[in-house]
Design a protein that fits this description.
The complex is a heterodimer of chains A (228) and B (196). Chain A contains seven helices and seven strands. With 228 residues, chain A is an alpha+beta fold. The chains are: A alpha+beta (228), B mainly alpha (196). The interface between A and B is large, with 57 and 66 residues.
């Protein structure tokens, strides 16, 4: 088996050696941090109440501390700039910054050629500022839908004062779930995009290698044809 | 050292793109038909090398291997690196399509320089391995200087920036020297024809 690889242009044993060696050296050098070596940075931003929170990371989870952040409005004008803290976080209030809702583009400058951005839509910003009404949750009174389930409870409630006369447990659960879903949906979107941003899939690697070998074959063919 | 999109001015991007294309054309034109296969293999090595992350403190570093690519390929390092970076940009969003030219130059110019250094030092068996070790390290240093030069228009102070990038890459510089040295020593034993 080894013989076969050794006579081949593909030097797998070298790769094995390299990996072992790399790990050894990594252990020796483990004191040194080198965040700037990441291929790229990722910035994500979300709104909570009136405040925009941002977090900046290198793939692998290292935070971008002291990274420059600038906030641009719809017209591309910089309306705010600042620096991330040691946790890679940077936050700013919306209402004091903007008179009217605008889509925001938040750009992170992590230095050494690394830059990332995140956009917040006009709707998101408007909703947070209370200018654009939030899309209403479907809170149609449950007693309309199922009057028979509510009626006995209401009667019971008026008889005994300490029991509040509200819908049954299932209905409360439904309302709460809807509200939570609405609050969480931007966060879920964010998680999805973070996953997409941060991971390099094995299929991408294989596809890339396939392209390289395909191009090599193409070039070899062209060269061979040119020789004749 | 993949420069992200949206940082450099279009003049820098267009200029470096033109030079990178010219270098790639030279690399393809001068490529020996027998050397096509090895160019592809080293392109693949370079493409994958940056995915090998080695945990280092709170973060991680990755191999670049442009020194190794250059020592073996010479001018063919240009097309090899160009294709690998193009695919990294498309598949992994490392760097970007507009910065492909400048990123190619940052990686390929040191590679080609290393080839000349290696040939110049390539006199005895010991020197060959020492030269490979030196080339592995030198390639990253030159890359860092080129990256600093490309960024100087947007981040001002060249000297400060160059020092900062080099210092951040010290672990990689050492790692690349060792890896390149061992790889060349191994190839010399197994496939000396690759090194000519």
């Amino acid at each position: 088996m080894n013989k076969l690889f050794e006579n081949n242009y593909l030097f797998f044993p070298v790769m094995r050696k390299i990996t072992a060696l790399g790990l050894m050296v990594a252990a020796l050098l483990s004191i040194m941090a080198a965040e700037a070596l990441a291929h790229r940075v990722v910035l994500f931003a979300w709104i909570e109440g009136d405040t925009v929170f941002t977090q900046s990371k290198f793939p692998g989870g290292a935070r971008v501390s002291e990274g420059g952040v600038s906030v641009l409005d719809e017209t591309g004008r910089e309306i705010l700039s600042g620096k991330t803290d040691r946790q890679g976080e940077f936050s700013f209030p919306l209402t004091s910054l903007l008179q009217s809702p605008s889509a925001l583009k938040i750009v992170l400058h992590a230095g050494m050629g690394h830059q990332a951005s995140w956009e917040l839509s006009r709707e998101e910003v408007g909703q947070a500022m209370g200018v654009i009404p939030e899309e209403p949750v479907d809170v149609s009174p449950p007693d309309e839908a199922r009057p028979e389930s509510i009626a006995p409870q209401a009667v019971e409630g008026s008889a005994r004062q300490e029991t509040p006369s509200i819908a049954n447990e299932a209905d409360i659960r439904k309302i709460v779930e809807e509200a939570i879903d609405r609050k969480l949906s931007p966060i879920m979107d964010m998680l999805v995009s973070i996953r997409e941003e941060m991971t390099v899939g094995l299929d991408d690697v294989v596809a890339g290698l396939g392209y390289i070998f395909g191009l090599t074959g193409l070039l070899a063919w062209l060269k061979a044809r040119g020789k004749k | 050292m993949h420069i992200s999109e949206g940082i450099l001015s279009w003049q820098v991007l267009a200029g470096s793109g033109a030079i990178a294309l010219a270098g790639t054309a030279v690399g393809i034109k001068t490529m020996d038909p027998e050397k096509v296969a090895r160019t592809g293999i080293l392109s693949a090595t370079f493409f994958v090398a940056s995915l090998i992350h080695i945990p280092l403190g709170p973060s991680s570093v990755h191999l670049i291997l442009n020194g190794l690519v250059g020592v073996i390929l010479g001018w063919s390092a240009f097309p090899a690196i160009f294709v690998a970076l193009l695919l990294q940009a498309i598949m992994f969003q490392f760097g970007g399509l507009t910065t492909l030219g400048v990123n190619t130059l940052i990686m390929a110019i040191p590679a080609v320089s290393c080839c000349y250094v290696f040939r110049w030092l390539n006199r005895s068996a010991f020197l060959q391995v020492a030269a490979a070790f030196a080339c592995g390290m030198l390639a990253i240093v030159i890359s860092a200087l080129l990256a600093a030069a490309a960024l100087v228009f947007s981040e001002k102070n060249f000297q400060e920036l160059a020092v900062m990038i080099i210092v951040a890459h010290v672990p990689v510089i050492i790692l690349e020297g060792i890896v390149t040295g061992f790889a060349i020593a191994f190839l010399k034993k197994v496939k000396p024809a690759l090194l000519l």
